[in-house]
TrEMBL record:
Residues 1-10 have a biased composition (Polar residues). This is SOS-response transcriptional repressor. Residues 1-32 are annotated as: Disordered. It comes from gut metagenome.
Length: 85
């Protein structure tokens, strides 16, 4: 028995059908997919947008900024009223 035959005996039998390999496949992304149902009016409006994904993301970002701004104003109002002099 030569050296190659000994190595083959010591290794598990391979099926030759691929399988999971380190580094193979598509890398995981940082985004998450969402799906929702829209009524007719919302669906019609959304369908008129050139890029629906960008439109939805921009709407959400604007809402997040508005909420953040409102919270900041509430925090500042706790310190009292500012009277310009």
């Amino acid at each position: 028995m030569d050296n190659q035959e000994k190595q083959a005996v010591n290794q598990p039998k391979k099926t030759g059908r691929g399988g999971k390999r380190p580094g193979a496949g598509r890398p995981k992304g940082t985004s998450k997919l969402y799906a929702f149902r829209a009524d007719k009016e919302v669906a019609a409006y959304l369908d008129r947008q050139e890029n629906k994904t960008d439109f939805i993301k921009e709407c959400i970002i604007r809402q997040m900024e508005a909420v953040k701004s409102q919270k900041e104003e509430e925090i500042l109002s706790q310190f009292g009223e500012v009277i310009p002099g």
